[in-house]
Amino acid sequence: MNDKIYRADLSKMKAWIEDVPESWNSLGGRGLTSAVVASEVEPLCHPLGKNNKLVFAPGLLSGTTAANTGRLSAGGKSPLTKGIKESNSGGTSAQLFARAGIKALIIEGLPENKNEFYGIRIKKDSIEIEKTSLWGKGNFETIETLSKGNEKCGVISIGAAGEMKMAAANISVKDPQGKIRSLGRGGLGAVMGSKNVKYVVIEPTENDQVYVENPEKFKEAAKSFAKALLEHPVSGEGLPTYGTNILTNVLHEAGGLPTKNFSTGNFDGHDKISGETMHDLIEERGGKVKHGCHPGCVIQCSQVYNDKNGNYLTSGFEYETIWATGANCKISDLDSLAYADHLMDDIGIDTIETGAAVAVAMDAGVLEFGDSKGFVNLLEQEIKNGTPLGRIVGAGAEVTGKVFGVTRVPVVKGQALPAYDPRAVKGMGITYATSPMGADHTAGYCVTSNILSVGGYVDPLKKDGQIELSRNLQIATASLDTAGLCIFTAFAILDNEKAMEAIVDMLNAKSGSSITGDDVMSLGASVLKMEREFNKKAGFNEKDDRLPEFFSLEKCPPHNVIWDFTDEEIDSFWNF
Length: 576
Ligand code: SF4
Hints:
Structural class: alpha+beta
Bound molecules: iron/sulfur cluster
Distance between the termini: 36 Å
Shape: globular
Strand content: 5-15%
Radius of gyration: 22 Å
Oligomer: single chain
């Protein structure tokens, strides 16, 4: 079966299906979205203008029976960083795309009529642009409405933030229960909003399935891969029990939990918002401790978090969200963080960028650190309604810092730093500085060796070995993102060579190729270089690979460390 490119042009109001160019055949996920952006998007274009494109692509292994391969990548030029962007997420759409033979969906152009709003409806062998009256509705209502009578359909949608083209707007992806996972970072929701596209619906047809050249070999490799995931202590035990929020106490202990807008690495309220506390509350209230964001996830780091009365409050309640809205804003009320998470899902805004922007606003005195009601009010009244203050915060941490005259603004390439202080977890600092995506923990997750001693140990407080660590992980991650693998498969891959062997075997069994582990790594390196090349053409240079000055001036307690890499050391990252 030959996969196809599905394309919708909002300028021409036309949608069609075309063959996949040969050079894209061996790509999927991030490798493919970045290749499309690199070849079809003018690097100097306005991210919200007619020359930007929004690309969705399932990974190379998505839609197969292999565990944890249901990631959907979205790509485009980012309104937040002004560089190339890939963001990926779970949910059901990647598997539905892959099974329908959709290699990628490319949305381009801008509609002439600014007052008409659209959805894109796709299934195997068909794509249509349709008018919609769902503009103005929240993500939950949008997903529910579109799923009526068609529970199994996939939905990708934007909320109020995307409609208002806020630079922190994300894109929501329906999960197996009709709730939300997010293509979180870089403001791609604003790109979708700029095209007046509210949603993409993918309707499965009965016989949709991914073609596998050698099913027996694939089955064997998939079994070995799932076994490696389940045998690893982090992916087989820690994540399924406590979710990603297992990291709150771990990072607090390590002195790398950014607190009060990156003022210190410890949070005295850490216990109240920790994974352990959350686990007990979920059990007490009849929620779900383990939950997969897509069918076939054997790790199940997600959960269902209920309120005090046992009613659903949120799911996919991640460490990074709990940190951004919790420790970073000095809020230690888990229920209020869960409510904020629910609101941000409905509004469709990145929790990391929003938490970081609110902490910057708190630094400026716009509201007090620890003011959980003020935070919720900012979401419900200001951002959702697009008031001037809401639009400032919704534009992200950098804009918020500029507007309020704050000098301590934790961003790289315009994107807020996530939940690991770069002074105390130095490998993460190298990833934040050098990733073409802007500050992004998933681009090269050095927490593995810096904090969790997975794949060896590199002292998080020292500079030695960090550049090599970040480089290896960024290259490997670009490969995993291309295959459609969840980042949490990396723990097993780093500690058990059978996991990597199984990935190579699955790729070969699926397409009849004979690539090696080295080929997989070379693919990751070429994706990374292609993304950097786009950014250079968009006007970026070495100076954009730097952390904000305050990290070199202010010591981070309790270790009292500063960011001390020289420019030359950082630039040596790209020597490969
Ligand atoms: S481990 Fe977590 S993020 Fe990864 S696929 Fe499973 S639920 Fe989704």
